[in-house]
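PROTEIN DESIGN WORKSHEET
SECTION A - STRUCTURE
LENGTH: 277
TOKENS:
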């Protein structure tokens, strides 16, 4: 079963719904997905596909949710490698040696908002509840990246930092990269203040008229999708290679966890990306 949601496809397998980008889904050498809040075993405010540890849900429930999601979306549970997000721009290259970190192995780094690899089978995992997931596929070098960008990461050009890391580690040409901007709080729902406005408008290649809508009294509606898209273009990724999912977590809080809607008493979602073996 599948249907369109924004510019993404909502699929379901084994009773677990998840989102994919049609353009990435068509690539035979990768598997990718973005979880929803449905199809898991968690209860209460975590109901039910909570993939975040340390929020008050039991580790047993979270691990079982990972198993369920991996079976449904086609990932190897034993090859997961998770980020350690803190709204900075550290990008880490990982291999099979890091399998399990952040899932059933303790994190060995305190600040990792981006993951890259060229190792087949390794599953990159990053976490969300309104922030922006950024997917990267180097179609020539067969390397991938997955990054987390809240407004701080967006203002710090997380997308460009990930492209740069792929250039340094794999010799990637930005012109060969397919990028996708996943579910997050959209321009319809994300109100920010003047200090955020100033940081965003200081970025190269940003058009305030197309990224921020004034609300009055020093408030603006921020389009994180467009800012990240423009950052990727400025980093050399062709505009035609970038897909914007256009799925707002706040508008779709019946399906997706949203910090803006639910506050801190909630579960969290995960983006995953792997090169197939």
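SECTION B - SEQUENCE
RESIDUE ASSIGNMENT:
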């Amino acid at each position: 079963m599948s249907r369109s949601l924004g510019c993404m496809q909502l699929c379901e397998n084994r009773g677990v719904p998840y989102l994919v980008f049609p353009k990435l889904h068509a690539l035979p050498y990768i598997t990718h997905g973005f979880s929803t809040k449905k199809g898991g075993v968690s209860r209460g405010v975590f109901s039910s596909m909570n993939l975040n540890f340390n929020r008050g849900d039991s580790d047993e429930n979270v691990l079982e949710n990972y198993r369920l999601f991996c079976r449904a979306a086609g990932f190897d549970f034993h090859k997961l490698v998770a980020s350690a997000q803190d709204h900075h721009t550290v990008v880490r290259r990982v291999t099979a040696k890091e399998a399990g970190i952040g899932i059933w192995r303790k994190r060995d780094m305190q600040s990792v908002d981006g993951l890259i690899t060229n190792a087949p089978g390794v599953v990159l995992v990053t976490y969300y509840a309104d922030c922006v997931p950024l997917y990267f596929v180097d179609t020539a070098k067969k390397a991938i990246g997955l990054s987390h960008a809240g407004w701080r990461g967006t203002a710090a050009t997380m997308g460009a930092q990930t492209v740069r890391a792929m250039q340094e580690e794999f010799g990637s040409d930005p012109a060969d990269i397919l990028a996708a901007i996943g579910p997050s709080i959209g321009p319809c729902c994300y109100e920010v203040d003047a200090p955020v406005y100033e940081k965003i408008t200081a970025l190269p290649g940003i058009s305030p008229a197309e990224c921020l809508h004034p609300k009055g009294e020093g408030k603006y509606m921020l389009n994180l999708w467009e800012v990240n898209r423009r950052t990727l273009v400025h980093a050399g990724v062709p505009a035609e290679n970038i897909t914007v999912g256009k799925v707002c977590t706040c508008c779709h809080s019946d399906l997706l966890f949203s910090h803006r809607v639910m506050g801190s008493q909630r579960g969290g979602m995960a983006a995953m990306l792997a090169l197939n073996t």
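SECTION C - NOTES
The helical segments are 22-25, 59-73, 151-155, 158-170, 194-201, 208-211, 224-234, 259-262.
The mean pLDDT is 97.
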